[in-house]
Write a structure and sequence with these properties.
This protein is an alpha/beta fold. The chain has one domain: Vaccinia Virus protein VP39 (Rossmann fold), CATH 3.40.50.150. The protein contains 17 helices and eight strands. Strands 1-4-3-2-5-6-8-7 form an eight-stranded mixed sheet, with helices on both faces. Helix 5 packs across helix 10 and helix 11 crosses helix 15.
Length: 405
């Protein structure tokens, strides 16, 4: 299925030369090889070599993901896997940079023109300071990170890099428009809450607005906002929406403390935001969601699943992103009790739950084979978390909480 999807071109993406396109496809294929070729070998190595060695040295069996890491880090096979995985991550960004630099002036000009076609607001405060948990490092090893520096200005190159690079990183699992998480949650709402018709929707930590746009498609009459702490991301998101012919509002804001009024949204969502925040920021974000929601409104955070839903070895595999991909909160976020955080933020205990939004690309693949229906939708979601760091299986874990009416 991975080769079925190619990213659909739009006017805010550069046009690679044949050589650049080949490098990008190689980077994506190398990532796929790591996931499908190298990663499956870690299990037998652990069971047959690393675990017995650890038990011999310590007198105990590896009991959790931290013990498993101690057992594995010195093993040559794991070192080979980790090194190639890191190299593939750096390579995918490098494969995109050349085409961006070659068309940088044109892309910035297009951004200005296409942003003007988006009737939605673009809010960029002059004195905004992004939180250090985002600005202090290049998340995902992406050169420049989400925020850039004082010289970035209104240059949208980092947004372009994110748009194309994330598609390669996800190996096509985010779909041809890079919007699978938002589209999956929209499908979930359409299937499970057909009478829910929000008039105002906020997407927190939207980066370049991939997952924001499906909400405008599903709820065309709603006022949609996407916010992020990265100015290059927001400028690009506004222009990208213009390229897609959609009027969506975007603003540079911190999800911990937005400038919106109390009880001003019917739906607040996020898509892989939580694991890129911090232990102090996450409770604040939940409280801000509660403040912003109207009575009866919904909070939905789509991310990868908490660690208590999986075995220690799978936890260890997923936690590699913490150690080797500049994702310091990737593992810690999965240890937090998100249900408790939602309760502490003010949501009623009986109105909080985890559920699964089946991946839209998986549903599409099943439908194309003539096998999709409501039963296969639930089957797609019944995953076993064995597909590797990025793709846990057939669905996204969603935390859903409803504010008291």
């Amino acid at each position: 299925m991975l080769n079925t999807f190619q990213q659909i071109r739009h006017d805010m993406l550069p046009t690679p030369t044949p050589q650049e396109a080949s490098r990008q496809e190689f980077a994506k294929s190398l990532k796929h090889f790591v996931q499908k070729g190298l990663l499956p070998g870690l299990g037998p190595i652990f069971e047959g070599r690393a675990a017995p060695s650890y038990s011999k040295e310590t007198g105990k069996v590896p009991a959790n993901r931290h013990d498993i890491r101690k057992a594995m880090v010195t093993d040559p096979y794991f070192r080979h896997y980790a090194a190639v995985n890191r190299i593939s991550q750096e390579m995918l960004w490098d494969s995109v940079i050349d085409s961006i630099e070659r068309e940088q002036e044109l892309l910035n000009k297009s951004a200005s023109e296409l942003s003007a076609k988006n009737a939605g607001q673009l809010v960029v405060p002059e004195d905004f300071v992004p939180p250090r948990y985002v600005s202090a490092l290049d998340i995902h090893c992406m050169p420049g990170g989400y925020c850039g520096d004082e010289e970035t200005g209104d240059d949208v190159s980092l947004g372009v890099l994110y748009d194309r690079g994330v598609y390669l990183y996800s190996m096509g699992y985010t779909g041809p428009f890079n919007d699978d998480m938002g589209r999956s949650v929209c499908n979930y709402l359409k299937r499970n809450m057909p009478d829910f018709k929000p008039k105002r929707i906020l997407d927190m930590g939207c980066t370049v607005g991939h997952s924001t746009l499906p909400y405008k498609e599903l709820f065309p009459d709603a006022e949609i906002w996407g916010i992020d702490v990265g100015e290059p991301m927001i400028r690009y998101a506004h222009a990208r929406a213009g390229a897609m012919g959609l009027d969506v509002n975007y603003g540079v804001m911190n999800a911990e403390e937005t400038t919106f009024e109390d009880e001003s949204f019917d739906l607040v969502v996020s898509h892989i935001l939580l694991h890129e925040t911090s232990g102090k920021a996450m409770p604040r974000i939940f409280k801000e969601c509660h403040r912003l929601l109207k009575p009866g409104g919904l909070m939905i955070h789509a991310d990868l699943p908490p660690f208590d839903l999986m075995d220690p070895f799978t936890q260890f595999i997923l936690d590699n992103e913490t150690y080797y991909n500049n994702e310091p909160f990737w593992g810690a976020m999965r240890d937090l009790d998100q249900i408790k955080l939602a309760k502490d933020a003010g949501f009623p205990a009986d109105a909080i739950k985890f559920d699964t939004a089946p991946m839209a690309v998986m549903e599409f693949a099943a439908a194309s084979q003539g096998g999709y229906n409501e039963q296969t939708a639930s089957g797609v979601a019944d995953r076993d978390f064995t597909a590797g760091e990025f793709a846990p299986g057939g669905g996204w874990e969603v935390l859903i909480a409803q504010k008291a009416g």
